[in-house]
From TrEMBL:
Gene3D superfamilies linked: 2-enoyl-CoA Hydratase, Chain A, domain 1, Lyase 2-enoyl-coa Hydratase, Chain A, domain 2
Species this chain originates from: Enterobacillus tribolii
Designated name of the protein: Enoyl-CoA hydratase
NCBIfam families tied to this protein: PRK09674.1
Record keywords: Lyase
Length: 257
């Protein structure tokens, strides 16, 4: 991959990855998506990274998949497409991801936001899955994650009509957790990421795993998984340090052990 479609910058324990395909409105081609996932996989093994922020440009978070790629695919090519495996690798990232969204998050861009753990957006943000208007449907988790995020009726409306929703509706529906003025979106996301990244690394991984379990399973197995992870953390140095720091009235010094 000769093109640098993902810009990377780290401040403290926060790694910011910026989609950088301005000529294509940050469309997530397969190579671009794979480059993003490679950066995440590097960050997963980097102890200096506690949380990742993914962002785009002022006008486009990401405008969808690369339609030129889709145009060239028949059934056989779609069956052997490597994109599903790349998305699975994205989902396997064990550290928290905060999406900072300004402008349009459409199609695969909306699916990228949905696959992130927290979404902070600017007032200009628009979220939509317009695949139906092209004779398609979402194919990277859009139908499954959207309905879990915003509920049945709105998910059906968005997917079947292809119409986007604005930032305020996204907040009301639970697709995003905070809306701010566009100029502060990235700063707000990075500030939250810094707070998240300062927490005990093993506890962050365990908590994210438990939350994912809640999205993907029924209550009973989720409760079992949560308790198992809670029990595992009882043997960590960070847990002892966190409790000791509380009683000592000082900030904890987590080591990831």
């Amino acid at each position: 991959m000769s093109c640098d479609w993902i810009l990377s910058a780290q401040a403290g324990r926060v790694l910011t990855l910026t989609l950088n395909r301005p000529d294509a409105r940050n469309a997530l081609s397969t190579d671009c998506l794979e480059q993003l996932v490679l950066r995440l996989e590097q960050a997963d093994g980097d102890e200096s990274v506690g949380c990742v922020v993914i962002t785009g440009s002022a006008r486009f978070f990401a405008a969808g998949a690369d339609l030129r790629e889709l145009q060239q695919q028949d059934v056989a090519a779609t069956l052997t497409d490597r994109r599903p495996q790349v998305w699975q690798r994205f989902s396997a990232f064990s550290k928290p991801i905060v999406a900072a969204v300004n402008g349009y998050a459409l199609g695969a861009g909306c699916e990228l936001a949905l696959a992130s753990d927290v979404v902070i957006c600017g007032e200009s943000a628009r979220f939509g899955l317009p695949e139906i208007t092209l004779g398609l449907m979402p194919g990277a988790g859009g139908t499954q994650r959207l309905i879990r995020s915003v509920g049945k009726s709105l998910a059906y409306q968005m997917v079947l009509s292809g119409e986007a929703i604005d930032a305020r509706r996204a907040l009301q529906a639970g697709l995003v957790s905070e809306v701010c003025v566009d100029a502060l979106t990235l700063e707000t996301a990075q500030r939250l990421a810094a707070r998240i990244g300062a927490q005990a690394p093993l506890a962050l991984r365990a908590a994210k795993a438990a939350l994912k379990q809640a999205q993907e399973s029924a209550l009973a197995p989720g409760l079992i998984a949560e308790r198992q992870l809670f029990t595992v953390l009882a043997g960590t140095e960070d847990r002892r340090e966190g409790i000791a720091a509380f009683f000592d009235k000082r900030s904890p010094e987590f080591k990831g052990r």
